[in-house]
């Protein structure tokens, strides 16, 4: 059943400092709202105090320096799809964005929301993991950078304090020469949550692979060994199907990107 609207508060801070201040007073951030509003509509949004960051312009950008491409957390899937430099140097991100929801979700949903919603089935985290992304977390007391590989701790548990906002995602510009491979396996080709999501890149003897929907958090690997994945049965699929699909995708990735690596 839909939530009772008057029992919720939604404020719109005028700038980042104001938003950070309100986080210390128990408000939680909402960006595009495409995850939050699903819970609201289902009557499952327990937290009542929200602030929208959507109108804070300094959080929506794609910045290019010689070393990094940095995305503001409000970068939408549509922004990602339209970015020529991402298509050239980090093509798995536009591919993930193109397979996320439909056009309406892509126009509204943000990369920051996809990360901070912390669903193990989310589609951009595997791409961010293989590209060695770092995330910037900001509170009133300052900012810190964290390798994205360390951000997801357990199911829906992140290294993100209640008074912190995810303020940047940066990608080191060292993967343009690698071979890139992305596959999302869902019930349909569009508007489907992943049963397995696979991102892989390869260069000479090195591989970097990440999978979604096969463990409580997105999994990152630097070998073809899938023994650390632990898929579960749920309403979308079964553990055994997911395991088999993960193996098949690893095989396809290896055969499409070059000779099979010699086991170490
Ligand atoms: C019809 C539909 C289809 C979808 N299809 C897909 C799909 O194919 N693949 C997929 O991965 N997802 C899908 N989603 C889920 C959703 O669209 C994405 O996860 C999206 O990226 C969420 O972004 P948002 O800005 O809307 O997040 P919001 O709903 O605004 O927020 C989500 C969570 O992140 C937190 N948050 C948001 N921004 C920040 C920030 N900057 N700092 C700290 N915390 C923050 C919020 O507090 C909240 O807990 C779909 C959703 C819908 C409704």
Give, in spatial order, the strands making up the sheet with the most strands.
4-5-10-6-7
* Terminal CA distance: 54 Å
What structural class should be given to the helix and strand makeup?
Answer: alpha+beta
How many helices does DSSP assign? 9
Number of DSSP-assigned strands: 14
Largest sheet: 5 strands, antiparallel
Choose one word for the global shape: globular
Q: What is the typical, i.e. mean, pLDDT?
A: 94
How is this fold's topology laid out?
Elements lengths: L8 E3 L4 H8 L4 E3 L5 H6 L7 E4 L9 E3 L3 E4 L5 H6 L1 H6 L2 H7 L4 H6 L2 H7 L7 H6 L3 E6 L2 E6 L4 E3 L2 E2 L6 E8 L6 E7 L10 E8 L2 E7 L6 E3 L17 H19 L7
Parallel strand pairs: 1-3, 2-3
Antiparallel strand pairs: 4-5, 5-10, 6-7, 6-10, 8-9, 11-12, 12-13, 13-14
Bound molecules: flavin-adenine dinucleotide.
Structural summary, described in words:
With 264 residues, the protein is of the alpha+beta class. It has nine helices and 14 strands. The strands form four sheets. It has a five-stranded antiparallel sheet. Strands 11-12-13-14 form a four-stranded antiparallel sheet, sandwiched between helices. A hairpin with a 2-residue loop joins strand 12 and strand 13. The chain is globular. The N and C termini lie far apart (54 Å). The model has no long low-confidence stretch (mean pLDDT 94). Bound molecules: flavin-adenine dinucleotide (FAD).
Keywords:
264 residues; alpha+beta; 5-stranded antiparallel beta sheet; 4-stranded antiparallel beta sheet; 27% helix
Please summarize what this structure is.
The chain has nine helices and 14 strands. With 264 residues, it is α+β, with helices and mostly antiparallel strands. The chain is globular.
